[in-house]
Amino acid sequence: MEMNQRPQTIPRVLIFPMPAQGHVSPMLKLAELLAMSGLHVTFLNSDHIHNRLIKYTDMETRFSKYPEFLFRTIWDGLEEDHPRTGESVWDIIFSMNEKTKPVLREMLVSGQLGSGATPYVTYMITDGLFGGFTLDVAEELGIPCVHFRTTSSCCFWSYFFFPLLAQTLINYLHRNEDMDRLVTSVPGMESFLRFRDLPSMCRVSDTTNKSFQMISQVTNQTRRARALILNTFDDLEGSFVNRLIEFCPNIYTIGPLHAHLNHRQAQNSKTSTYPSSNNLYDIDRSCLTWLDSQPPNSVIYVSFGSIVVMTKSELIELWYGLVNSKQRFLWVMRPDMLMAEDGDRSVPAELEDATRERGFIVSYAPQEQVLAHSAVGGFLTHSGWNSTLESIVAGVPMICWPYFADQQINSRFVSEVWKLGLDMKDVSDRKVVEMMVNDLMVERREEFVKSTAEMARLAKMCVNEGGSSYCNLEKLVEDMRCGTK
Ligand code: UDP
């Protein structure tokens, strides 16, 4: 069935992210970039995330300047109080893959996703984690559909080798061998990728495990998509983007999207602008005032994104490590960061005293602004892809403490390939934390400052006029207008 009976001169693009902070945020930035280019955009979000964006951001005002920008919502299939942090995020993907297809089809057919001027969706950009169901609907209705992957290209490349890895993993993990042994089945990474650097879905004793299987399946589906959009840039990941062409011949690398959007907004307004925030938590800006009173490059910013949960003992080890390093720190402790069974929040008084002296704790920070602040000299991060890109653009070296999914591989690339920091992988020991913080902030500072400054320069150049990401975005818009790609 072909849906578009009436020709539309302006494309209406549907953008449909997996409803989680790290997916909604970059895809909303892309949506805004497309709206700035004059396309009509419909952003389809889960009710749960949409309501949080309305509550915690100025999103409604921000997008009111694009009269043809529509927000629409869809149920993620989970009860409102279902946990959506930690390993529970997988539930969202399973639930949507199971239940959303008929609802999406109905919304498209009935014109609920269009406006009077552009009633029908003529192009779809959907989250690659949705695998085949958005592609099935698009194919049936004759709408070109492109997949957007919010992970790094290097990680996405490794996902294509999960079927090959399966047998090795079973043999290996059952024998509980050395996690530092090199993995040989991911081309291009043979010399540095260890078992402990594989995406967390590989840490299973049984590869019939749901998340391992799901990643394999949805990755393979992307080969059916009209094209692939990646939030990365060629100077950082060009070699793996080139390899991905084997599976996905049409790739648009248009990142880092936050820098891209900031650049185009500044171009338009001719003044420096405030970064567009797409946060799902209440941001506490008091930390910016605190940073204003700290010496340059003296503070290590600590944040583990929107999903990581940890045990009380991990929290205490990290905390002692930071305090014992004697460096200043700004730490984001989300209210839902501690695992449920570790609900007791009492901490040793000596930690609280030291924190009052040279630390600051907030429940959520304006991260882009924090990283850009001259007082921040390092970032202890979970290596989520957005945080990694934000740190790269700000030229801030990282200590990586990955939690799950692509974070294990990102952290390996940060330390071994790009040389932008240190990988603390799998360790939560106060002595190691203390040593790494001192290495990053003092002992090896010079070495990291050099490499991070150079990568920041390249990241900014690629979103400037004539840069690779800038040109790729222009091409994407052009292809959507022509409906050719
Ligand atoms: N973030 C923020 N303030 C915080 C913590 C996180 O604004 O206190 C933002 C951060 O800037 C990034 C996103 O939340 O854009 C987290 O995405 P990422 O991919 O790094 O990790 P995830 O939350 O998906 O694990």
Automatic annotation (TrEMBL):
Enumerate the UniProt keywords alphabetically. Answer: Glycosyltransferase, Transferase
Q: Which residues form a coiled coil?
A: none
EC top class named in words: transferase
**What is the protein's name according to its record?**
7-deoxyloganetic acid glucosyltransferase
Per the similarity annotation, which family is this?
Belongs to the UDP-glycosyltransferase family.
Keyword Glycosyltransferase found: yes
Question: Any idea which GO molecular function terms this record carries?
Answer: 7-deoxyloganetic acid glucosyltransferase activity; quercetin 3-O-glucosyltransferase activity; quercetin 7-O-glucosyltransferase activity
Which catalytic reaction applies to this protein?
7-deoxyloganetate + UDP-alpha-D-glucose = 7-deoxyloganate + UDP + H(+)
Q: Which organism is it from?
A: Cannabis sativa
The record's section on SUPFAM superfamilies has: UDP-Glycosyltransferase/glycogen phosphorylase
Q: Report the EC code(s) recorded for this entry.
A: 2.4.1.323
Question: Known Gene3D superfamilies for this protein?
Answer: Glycogen Phosphorylase B
Lineage, highest ranks first: Eukaryota, Viridiplantae, Streptophyta, Embryophyta, Tracheophyta
